[in-house]
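quick one: nicotinamide-adenine-dinucleotide bound model?
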Amino acid sequence: MQSTSEANQRIARIAAHLHPPNLQMEENSSLRRSMCRAKGAAPGFKVAILGAAGGIGQPLSLLMKMNPLVSVLHLYDVVNTPGVTADVSHMDTGAVVRGFLGQAQLDDALTGMDLVIIPAGVPRKPGMTRDDLFNINAGIVRTLCEGVARCCPKALVNLISNPVNSTVPIAAEVFKKAGTYDPKRLLGVTMLDVVRANTFVAEVLGLDPREVDVPVVGGHAGVTILPLLSQVKPPCSFTPEEITYLTDRIQNGGTEVVEAKAGAGSATLSMAYAAVKFADACLRGLRGDAGIIECSFVASQVTELPFFATKVRLGRNGAEEVLPLGPLNEYERAGLVKAKKELAESIQKGVSFIKK
Ligand SMILES: NC(=O)c1ccc[n+]([C@@H]2O[C@H](COP(=O)([O-])OP(=O)(O)OC[C@H]3O[C@@H](n4cnc5c(N)ncnc54)[C@H](O)[C@@H]3O)[C@@H](O)[C@H]2O)c1
Ligand SMILES: O=C(O)C[C@H](O)C(=O)O
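yep, here:
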Protein backbone atom coordinates (compact mmCIF):
# COMPACT_ATOMS: atom_id res chain seq x y z
CA MET A 1 0.00 0.00 0.00
CA GLN A 2 1.17 3.51 -0.76
CA SER A 3 2.30 5.58 2.28
CA THR A 4 0.81 9.04 2.89
CA SER A 5 4.11 10.72 2.11
CA GLU A 6 4.44 8.82 -1.19
CA ALA A 7 0.90 9.82 -2.06
CA ASN A 8 1.65 13.44 -1.18
CA GLN A 9 4.81 13.39 -3.33
CA ARG A 10 2.82 12.02 -6.21
CA ILE A 11 0.16 14.70 -5.87
CA ALA A 12 2.93 17.31 -5.71
CA ARG A 13 4.46 15.97 -8.96
CA ILE A 14 1.11 16.12 -10.73
CA ALA A 15 0.45 19.61 -9.38
CA ALA A 16 3.92 20.70 -10.55
CA HIS A 17 3.03 19.59 -14.02
CA LEU A 18 -0.31 21.40 -13.98
CA HIS A 19 0.64 24.61 -12.16
CA PRO A 20 4.39 25.12 -11.94
CA PRO A 21 4.43 28.80 -10.85
CA ASN A 22 1.89 28.32 -8.10
CA LEU A 23 3.50 25.12 -6.86
CA GLN A 24 6.70 27.11 -6.52
CA MET A 25 4.69 29.56 -4.42
CA GLU A 26 3.30 26.66 -2.31
CA GLU A 27 6.74 25.11 -1.79
CA ASN A 28 8.17 28.45 -0.75
CA SER A 29 5.33 29.13 1.63
CA SER A 30 5.47 25.67 3.23
CA LEU A 31 9.23 26.16 3.77
CA ARG A 32 8.46 29.55 5.29
CA ARG A 33 5.73 28.04 7.48
CA SER A 34 8.23 25.50 8.81
CA MET A 35 10.59 28.39 9.67
CA CYS A 36 7.96 30.37 11.56
CA ARG A 37 6.88 29.89 15.15
CA ALA A 38 3.22 28.90 15.42
CA LYS A 39 0.74 31.62 16.25
CA GLY A 40 -3.05 31.60 16.38
CA ALA A 41 -4.88 33.12 13.43
CA ALA A 42 -6.02 36.69 14.12
CA PRO A 43 -9.78 36.93 14.61
CA GLY A 44 -11.50 38.34 11.56
CA PHE A 45 -13.23 37.50 8.31
CA LYS A 46 -12.07 35.40 5.38
CA VAL A 47 -12.30 37.28 2.12
CA ALA A 48 -11.66 36.11 -1.47
CA ILE A 49 -11.06 38.42 -4.43
CA LEU A 50 -11.79 36.83 -7.82
CA GLY A 51 -9.97 38.73 -10.57
CA ALA A 52 -7.32 39.82 -8.06
CA ALA A 53 -4.56 40.41 -10.63
CA GLY A 54 -6.57 42.94 -12.67
CA GLY A 55 -6.73 46.71 -12.77
CA ILE A 56 -9.26 46.79 -9.92
CA GLY A 57 -8.10 43.53 -8.33
CA GLN A 58 -4.57 44.69 -7.49
CA PRO A 59 -5.36 47.91 -5.60
CA LEU A 60 -8.38 46.15 -4.08
CA SER A 61 -6.07 43.39 -2.79
CA LEU A 62 -3.74 46.03 -1.36
CA LEU A 63 -6.57 47.84 0.41
CA MET A 64 -8.20 44.66 1.76
CA LYS A 65 -4.81 43.57 3.13
CA MET A 66 -4.91 46.83 5.13
CA ASN A 67 -8.41 46.17 6.49
CA PRO A 68 -8.23 45.15 10.16
CA LEU A 69 -11.48 43.15 9.85
CA VAL A 70 -9.81 40.70 7.42
CA SER A 71 -7.85 37.75 8.84
CA VAL A 72 -7.44 35.69 5.66
CA LEU A 73 -7.26 37.09 2.11
CA HIS A 74 -7.47 34.73 -0.87
CA LEU A 75 -6.38 36.16 -4.21
CA TYR A 76 -7.68 34.28 -7.26
CA ASP A 77 -7.20 34.98 -10.95
CA VAL A 78 -6.53 33.09 -14.16
CA VAL A 79 -3.17 34.92 -14.55
CA ASN A 80 -0.45 36.54 -12.44
CA THR A 81 -1.65 35.72 -8.93
CA PRO A 82 1.76 34.40 -7.75
CA GLY A 83 3.33 37.83 -8.29
CA VAL A 84 0.47 39.84 -6.83
CA THR A 85 0.26 37.49 -3.83
CA ALA A 86 4.00 37.61 -3.12
CA ASP A 87 3.92 41.39 -3.36
CA VAL A 88 0.84 42.03 -1.17
CA SER A 89 1.87 39.36 1.36
CA HIS A 90 4.94 41.40 2.35
CA MET A 91 2.77 44.16 3.83
CA ASP A 92 3.08 44.13 7.63
CA THR A 93 -0.66 44.04 8.31
CA GLY A 94 -2.64 41.26 10.00
CA ALA A 95 -4.32 39.40 7.14
CA VAL A 96 -2.71 36.17 5.92
CA VAL A 97 -2.58 36.20 2.10
CA ARG A 98 -2.80 33.13 -0.15
CA GLY A 99 -2.75 33.04 -3.96
CA PHE A 100 -4.72 30.76 -6.29
CA LEU A 101 -4.11 30.46 -10.02
CA GLY A 102 -6.48 29.09 -12.63
CA GLN A 103 -9.76 27.23 -12.64
CA ALA A 104 -8.30 24.12 -10.98
CA GLN A 105 -7.67 26.17 -7.82
CA LEU A 106 -10.99 28.05 -7.74
CA ASP A 107 -12.56 25.72 -5.17
CA ASP A 108 -9.60 26.03 -2.80
CA ALA A 109 -9.75 29.81 -3.17
CA LEU A 110 -13.43 29.84 -2.17
CA THR A 111 -13.73 27.21 0.54
CA GLY A 112 -14.53 28.74 3.94
CA MET A 113 -14.89 32.33 2.73
CA ASP A 114 -17.22 34.82 4.47
CA LEU A 115 -17.11 37.42 1.68
CA VAL A 116 -16.33 37.00 -2.02
CA ILE A 117 -15.58 40.13 -4.06
CA ILE A 118 -15.78 39.67 -7.85
CA PRO A 119 -14.07 42.20 -10.13
CA ALA A 120 -13.20 39.52 -12.77
CA GLY A 121 -13.97 40.34 -16.39
CA VAL A 122 -13.12 42.63 -19.26
CA PRO A 123 -13.43 46.43 -18.99
CA ARG A 124 -14.82 48.89 -21.55
CA LYS A 125 -12.89 50.73 -24.23
CA PRO A 126 -14.00 54.13 -25.64
CA GLY A 127 -17.21 53.84 -27.67
CA MET A 128 -18.47 50.76 -25.84
CA THR A 129 -21.42 50.48 -23.46
CA ARG A 130 -21.27 48.27 -20.38
CA ASP A 131 -23.73 45.96 -22.11
CA ASP A 132 -21.12 45.36 -24.84
CA LEU A 133 -19.17 43.42 -22.16
CA PHE A 134 -22.06 40.99 -21.63
CA ASN A 135 -20.90 38.27 -24.02
CA ILE A 136 -17.56 37.76 -22.27
CA ASN A 137 -18.37 38.68 -18.68
CA ALA A 138 -21.63 36.73 -18.37
CA GLY A 139 -19.78 33.43 -18.76
CA ILE A 140 -17.01 34.47 -16.35
CA VAL A 141 -19.55 35.45 -13.67
CA ARG A 142 -21.49 32.22 -14.20
CA THR A 143 -18.36 30.06 -13.69
CA LEU A 144 -17.25 31.97 -10.60
CA CYS A 145 -20.72 31.92 -9.02
CA GLU A 146 -20.98 28.18 -9.63
CA GLY A 147 -17.80 27.95 -7.55
CA VAL A 148 -19.34 30.09 -4.80
CA ALA A 149 -22.44 27.84 -4.75
CA ARG A 150 -20.22 24.73 -4.44
CA CYS A 151 -17.68 25.95 -1.91
CA CYS A 152 -19.04 28.85 0.19
CA PRO A 153 -22.81 29.04 -0.36
CA LYS A 154 -23.29 31.17 2.77
CA ALA A 155 -20.72 33.80 1.76
CA LEU A 156 -21.76 37.35 0.93
CA VAL A 157 -21.02 38.14 -2.72
CA ASN A 158 -20.02 41.67 -3.81
CA LEU A 159 -20.39 41.66 -7.60
CA ILE A 160 -18.43 44.34 -9.48
CA SER A 161 -18.10 42.81 -12.99
CA ASN A 162 -20.08 44.68 -15.63
CA PRO A 163 -22.77 44.93 -16.78
CA VAL A 164 -23.84 44.83 -13.11
CA ASN A 165 -27.50 45.28 -14.16
CA SER A 166 -27.25 41.84 -15.83
CA THR A 167 -24.48 40.06 -13.90
CA VAL A 168 -26.39 40.25 -10.59
CA PRO A 169 -29.45 38.52 -12.14
CA ILE A 170 -27.05 35.96 -13.69
CA ALA A 171 -25.55 35.23 -10.27
CA ALA A 172 -29.03 34.92 -8.73
CA GLU A 173 -30.06 32.38 -11.39
CA VAL A 174 -26.86 30.36 -10.86
CA PHE A 175 -27.52 30.24 -7.11
CA LYS A 176 -31.20 29.34 -7.66
CA LYS A 177 -30.16 26.46 -9.91
CA ALA A 178 -27.73 25.24 -7.26
CA GLY A 179 -30.39 25.59 -4.54
CA THR A 180 -28.25 28.05 -2.54
CA TYR A 181 -29.86 31.40 -3.40
CA ASP A 182 -30.26 33.81 -0.52
CA PRO A 183 -31.19 37.22 -1.96
CA LYS A 184 -29.78 39.01 1.09
CA ARG A 185 -26.29 37.67 0.34
CA LEU A 186 -25.97 38.85 -3.27
CA LEU A 187 -25.02 42.51 -3.60
CA GLY A 188 -24.25 44.37 -6.82
CA VAL A 189 -21.62 47.04 -6.14
CA THR A 190 -22.90 50.51 -7.12
CA MET A 191 -20.78 52.30 -4.53
CA LEU A 192 -18.66 54.03 -7.18
CA ASP A 193 -21.75 55.95 -8.31
CA VAL A 194 -22.25 57.16 -4.73
CA VAL A 195 -18.54 58.01 -4.35
CA ARG A 196 -18.66 60.04 -7.58
CA ALA A 197 -21.95 61.71 -6.64
CA ASN A 198 -20.55 62.74 -3.25
CA THR A 199 -17.43 64.16 -4.93
CA PHE A 200 -19.22 66.09 -7.69
CA VAL A 201 -21.94 67.44 -5.38
CA ALA A 202 -19.33 68.52 -2.82
CA GLU A 203 -17.46 70.40 -5.59
CA VAL A 204 -20.62 72.30 -6.54
CA LEU A 205 -21.53 73.08 -2.91
CA GLY A 206 -17.95 73.91 -1.87
CA LEU A 207 -18.01 71.23 0.85
CA ASP A 208 -15.68 68.45 1.96
CA PRO A 209 -16.90 65.30 0.09
CA ARG A 210 -16.68 63.33 3.34
CA GLU A 211 -19.53 65.46 4.71
CA VAL A 212 -21.82 64.76 1.74
CA ASP A 213 -24.20 61.82 1.30
CA VAL A 214 -25.98 61.40 -2.03
CA PRO A 215 -28.30 58.40 -2.48
CA VAL A 216 -27.90 56.90 -5.96
CA VAL A 217 -30.61 54.41 -6.93
CA GLY A 218 -31.68 52.31 -9.94
CA GLY A 219 -28.77 50.44 -11.49
CA HIS A 220 -25.23 50.85 -12.76
CA ALA A 221 -25.29 52.03 -16.38
CA GLY A 222 -26.18 55.36 -18.03
CA VAL A 223 -29.75 56.45 -17.33
CA THR A 224 -30.25 53.63 -14.83
CA ILE A 225 -27.86 55.52 -12.50
CA LEU A 226 -30.31 57.83 -10.73
CA PRO A 227 -28.87 60.28 -8.19
CA LEU A 228 -31.51 61.59 -5.79
CA LEU A 229 -30.30 65.16 -5.47
CA SER A 230 -33.46 66.12 -3.55
CA GLN A 231 -32.29 63.82 -0.72
CA VAL A 232 -28.69 65.04 -0.40
CA LYS A 233 -27.32 65.37 3.12
CA PRO A 234 -26.64 67.97 4.42
CA PRO A 235 -29.96 69.36 3.12
CA CYS A 236 -29.36 71.79 0.25
CA SER A 237 -30.94 73.04 -2.95
CA PHE A 238 -29.65 73.19 -6.53
CA THR A 239 -30.50 75.36 -9.52
CA PRO A 240 -32.02 73.53 -12.54
CA GLU A 241 -28.65 73.97 -14.34
CA GLU A 242 -26.78 72.39 -11.43
CA ILE A 243 -29.23 69.46 -11.39
CA THR A 244 -28.75 68.82 -15.12
CA TYR A 245 -24.95 69.13 -14.84
CA LEU A 246 -24.69 66.87 -11.77
CA THR A 247 -27.08 64.18 -13.03
CA ASP A 248 -25.29 64.01 -16.37
CA ARG A 249 -21.81 63.92 -14.77
CA ILE A 250 -22.78 61.19 -12.28
CA GLN A 251 -24.48 59.07 -14.96
CA ASN A 252 -21.46 59.39 -17.25
CA GLY A 253 -18.66 59.24 -14.66
CA GLY A 254 -17.58 55.81 -15.91
CA THR A 255 -17.45 57.00 -19.52
CA GLU A 256 -15.44 60.08 -18.44
CA VAL A 257 -12.74 57.72 -17.08
CA VAL A 258 -12.92 55.30 -20.04
CA GLU A 259 -12.36 58.21 -22.45
CA ALA A 260 -9.55 59.71 -20.36
CA LYS A 261 -7.79 56.32 -20.25
CA ALA A 262 -8.13 56.19 -24.06
CA GLY A 263 -8.24 52.42 -24.52
CA ALA A 264 -6.30 51.43 -21.39
CA GLY A 265 -9.43 50.35 -19.49
CA SER A 266 -11.95 51.88 -17.13
CA ALA A 267 -11.99 53.10 -13.53
CA THR A 268 -9.74 50.93 -11.38
CA LEU A 269 -8.34 53.06 -8.54
CA SER A 270 -11.54 54.88 -7.57
CA MET A 271 -13.34 51.55 -8.06
CA ALA A 272 -10.97 49.73 -5.70
CA TYR A 273 -11.56 52.52 -3.16
CA ALA A 274 -15.34 52.20 -3.60
CA ALA A 275 -15.22 48.39 -3.45
CA VAL A 276 -13.29 48.49 -0.18
CA LYS A 277 -15.66 51.08 1.27
CA PHE A 278 -18.55 48.75 0.43
CA ALA A 279 -16.80 45.53 1.52
CA ASP A 280 -15.85 47.14 4.82
CA ALA A 281 -19.51 48.08 5.38
CA CYS A 282 -20.52 44.46 4.62
CA LEU A 283 -17.92 43.13 7.10
CA ARG A 284 -19.06 45.56 9.80
CA GLY A 285 -22.61 44.33 9.16
CA LEU A 286 -21.46 40.70 9.42
CA ARG A 287 -19.76 41.58 12.72
CA GLY A 288 -23.12 42.80 14.03
CA ASP A 289 -22.56 46.57 13.96
CA ALA A 290 -25.85 48.49 13.94
CA GLY A 291 -26.98 51.17 11.48
CA ILE A 292 -24.82 50.24 8.46
CA ILE A 293 -26.63 51.71 5.46
CA GLU A 294 -25.21 51.76 1.91
CA CYS A 295 -26.63 51.75 -1.64
CA SER A 296 -26.50 48.44 -3.51
CA PHE A 297 -28.16 46.70 -6.48
CA VAL A 298 -30.09 43.87 -4.82
CA ALA A 299 -33.23 41.73 -5.08
CA SER A 300 -35.90 44.26 -4.27
CA GLN A 301 -39.61 44.95 -3.98
CA VAL A 302 -39.19 48.72 -4.00
CA THR A 303 -40.36 48.83 -7.64
CA GLU A 304 -42.02 46.22 -9.85
CA LEU A 305 -38.52 45.11 -11.02
CA PRO A 306 -36.92 42.07 -9.36
CA PHE A 307 -33.62 43.94 -8.80
CA PHE A 308 -33.06 47.60 -8.01
CA ALA A 309 -30.42 49.69 -6.27
CA THR A 310 -31.48 51.62 -3.17
CA LYS A 311 -30.10 52.10 0.29
CA VAL A 312 -29.95 48.79 2.16
CA ARG A 313 -29.29 48.02 5.82
CA LEU A 314 -26.36 45.63 6.13
CA GLY A 315 -26.30 43.11 8.96
CA ARG A 316 -25.19 39.64 9.97
CA ASN A 317 -27.05 38.12 6.99
CA GLY A 318 -26.13 40.69 4.34
CA ALA A 319 -28.76 43.10 2.99
CA GLU A 320 -31.22 42.58 5.83
CA GLU A 321 -33.52 45.42 4.85
CA VAL A 322 -34.07 47.11 1.51
CA LEU A 323 -35.04 50.71 2.21
CA PRO A 324 -37.68 52.60 0.22
CA LEU A 325 -36.91 55.29 -2.33
CA GLY A 326 -38.25 58.14 -0.22
CA PRO A 327 -39.98 61.18 -1.75
CA LEU A 328 -38.89 61.96 -5.35
CA ASN A 329 -39.36 65.27 -7.14
CA GLU A 330 -40.78 65.53 -10.66
CA TYR A 331 -37.33 65.42 -12.32
CA GLU A 332 -36.40 62.27 -10.40
CA ARG A 333 -39.75 60.60 -11.14
CA ALA A 334 -39.13 61.14 -14.88
CA GLY A 335 -35.60 59.72 -14.44
CA LEU A 336 -37.04 56.71 -12.65
CA VAL A 337 -39.32 55.87 -15.58
CA LYS A 338 -36.35 55.88 -17.99
CA ALA A 339 -34.16 53.92 -15.56
CA LYS A 340 -36.77 51.19 -15.06
CA LYS A 341 -37.29 50.71 -18.80
CA GLU A 342 -33.59 50.04 -19.45
CA LEU A 343 -33.14 48.05 -16.25
CA ALA A 344 -36.02 45.69 -17.09
CA GLU A 345 -34.27 44.72 -20.35
CA SER A 346 -30.84 44.25 -18.74
CA ILE A 347 -32.27 42.12 -15.94
CA GLN A 348 -34.19 39.95 -18.39
CA LYS A 349 -31.06 39.51 -20.51
CA GLY A 350 -29.17 38.19 -17.49
CA VAL A 351 -31.96 35.82 -16.44
CA SER A 352 -32.33 34.45 -19.99
CA PHE A 353 -28.58 33.80 -20.22
CA ILE A 354 -28.89 31.13 -17.52
CA LYS A 355 -32.39 29.92 -18.30
CA LYS A 356 -31.87 29.49 -22.07
N1 LIG B 1 -19.30 47.97 -10.60
C1 LIG B 1 -18.56 49.00 -10.92
O1 LIG B 1 -18.81 50.12 -10.47
C2 LIG B 1 -17.36 48.83 -11.78
C3 LIG B 1 -16.38 49.84 -11.84
C4 LIG B 1 -15.25 49.65 -12.63
C5 LIG B 1 -15.11 48.50 -13.38
N2 LIG B 1 -16.08 47.52 -13.30
C6 LIG B 1 -15.95 46.28 -14.04
O2 LIG B 1 -15.02 45.43 -13.37
C7 LIG B 1 -14.46 44.51 -14.29
C8 LIG B 1 -12.96 44.42 -14.16
O3 LIG B 1 -12.36 45.63 -14.52
P1 LIG B 1 -10.75 45.80 -14.49
O4 LIG B 1 -10.46 47.17 -14.90
O5 LIG B 1 -10.20 45.27 -13.23
O6 LIG B 1 -10.35 44.80 -15.68
P2 LIG B 1 -8.93 44.07 -15.93
O7 LIG B 1 -8.98 43.50 -17.29
O8 LIG B 1 -7.82 45.00 -15.58
O9 LIG B 1 -8.93 42.91 -14.84
C9 LIG B 1 -9.83 41.85 -14.89
C10 LIG B 1 -9.19 40.65 -14.28
O10 LIG B 1 -10.13 39.58 -14.35
C11 LIG B 1 -9.39 38.41 -14.63
N3 LIG B 1 -10.24 37.35 -15.14
C12 LIG B 1 -10.71 37.16 -16.40
N4 LIG B 1 -11.41 36.03 -16.45
C13 LIG B 1 -11.39 35.49 -15.22
C14 LIG B 1 -11.93 34.32 -14.64
N5 LIG B 1 -12.65 33.46 -15.35
N6 LIG B 1 -11.69 34.09 -13.33
C15 LIG B 1 -10.97 34.96 -12.60
N7 LIG B 1 -10.44 36.09 -13.08
C16 LIG B 1 -10.64 36.34 -14.38
C17 LIG B 1 -8.33 38.84 -15.62
O11 LIG B 1 -7.27 37.90 -15.70
C18 LIG B 1 -7.93 40.18 -15.04
O12 LIG B 1 -6.83 40.04 -14.15
C19 LIG B 1 -14.94 44.96 -15.67
O13 LIG B 1 -16.05 44.19 -16.06
C20 LIG B 1 -15.38 46.40 -15.43
O14 LIG B 1 -16.32 46.84 -16.35
C21 LIG B 1 -17.18 47.69 -12.53
O1 LIG C 1 -17.62 52.66 -16.87
C1 LIG C 1 -17.21 51.51 -16.82
O2 LIG C 1 -17.20 50.77 -17.80
C2 LIG C 1 -16.65 50.97 -15.54
C3 LIG C 1 -17.52 51.21 -14.35
O3 LIG C 1 -18.80 50.68 -14.50
C4 LIG C 1 -17.57 52.66 -13.94
O4 LIG C 1 -18.64 53.15 -13.63
O5 LIG C 1 -16.49 53.30 -13.89
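DSSP finds twelve helices and eleven strands in the chain.
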